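OP here, attaching both records as promised.
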Amino acid sequence: MSHKPSTPSRFELHPQLANDTQPVAHLSLCDVLLMDNANHPWLILVPRVANAVELIDLDEAQQAELTREIATASRALQTAFKPHKLNVAALGNLVSQLHVHVIARYDDDIAWPRPVWGSADARPYSPETLIDRIQRLRDALGA
């Protein structure tokens, strides 16, 4: 059973995601966003599909494309930041719009080995670091 809300009928980025992120790239299906949290290299993929809340709200072709784009984002984080581990999750408890977190983790990061949520306050990027991080990610994505 689908959990799609009745409105809107065209894709719009959830205001909370827009507030917490910076745009990095547009893939075939997803917008790639950088979470404004310097504690972790953290990408968010948002399928540009109106009313998508759950993975099952995507058709089979979109589900396959999302899987490919998660792999693309994961490789970009590995290339750019050499993490020890990647965390990939689609939770949606606070923001229902379908989005997938791809987070580079290190065994010495502020939250290790716990999940990043609720472990430490977000630390916004400095303007210089933000510009550098976005460029490194765009280069790694081939964007």
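Record two, same layout:
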Amino acid sequence: MKTSRSTEASIKHGRQPRRGVLSTVLRALSIVMAVVLVSGASVAAWVVWDLASNVSSNAIDISGPDDTPLPAVPNIDAFEGGFNLLVVGADNDPEQGDDFGEREITLNDVNMLLHVSEDHSSAVVVSFPRDLVIPHPTCVDPETGESNGPTRAQPLNAAFERGGLACVVGTIENLTGLEIEFAALMSFASVVRMTDAVGGVPVCLTAPVNDPLSDLDLPAGTSVVSGETALAFLRTRHGVGDGSDLSRIASQQQYISSLVRTIKSNDTLTDVTKLYSLAQVAAKHVNLSTSLTNVTRMVAMARTLVTVDLDKLNLIQYPVMDDPNNRNRVVPLQSLADQLFERIATDAPFAPDPNANRTGVEADPNAPATPPADAPDATPGATPVPTPTTDVIEGLQGQTAFDQTCSVANR
């Protein structure tokens, strides 16, 4: 039949073969495009499956017996409500290797809690000092199944050894009164790979730093760091401020502030390809809680930060004072901590105290003069002037993601 139709057409219309060739080409292109589109969907499905497989194989259960199932997230723009995510940096993780020295136990030396508000208009990252002496709840060792009873006073960084990531989550929940649904455990190696995936983050130093203990060697001024150099910057304690963990926290806040500005400036949070690329690195090199094994939920959570302005993302140091029983430890400054977490729990707007003395960082004198829209009188390097509805918590140390700071070299 097909041959006779073609023959009849060529008899009646002498120029028709040219259109026939064009039609054939178009049909062929349509078929090719269909194959490409189907293949693209298959590749996308494989990527998501590969991510989910990696996440699931490394996932850690932090749930409690009374936890309710999390609602489904149908697509990457459908995450509803706020959330709490605890990021833990482990020292002596099994993937750490011998390059960073050896310890007999694994310590949760970096503990950061990200809270995103219910309406996705603001966020806060609270850094908890590793030497913060607080009560610890009963925890179960995930390796042995043995129960470790509660303690009245122990450094925060002992929690991981008592019961893994779930114990760190439970300890922070007890301290803050917040429910933490999500968590991530990062080793030194995963920090290196994640910073490489971002493509480098600018950091600032007031003077050259050469710290052999962290292997950090950077000149004064601004340097773009990634990989092991970024890790060294995040780890250095003796190279900045007064050599304390509080100085290191201030440097880490400078890094996070710059990281957020970098991600927002290159549209990472609105570029699905970039987000899935970061998710792939996280899936392979970061141990995520089982509540994060859904890749769509993971990407959707990241995209909630698109609507958070830089000056509405607070980077806060948990309020502490010196431990009267041990000069090398700190304890909660309870009155200030209560004010902070009351506002976080209710999503009430607040800002850190611009006059609070922060150990380890100072305003970057070369910061651009352009302030956010709600701070028309801001000056270069200065903390943005809060809006009238923003409650400044007196004595609260920290900065916003808009603020540009420099780490003070330890002299």
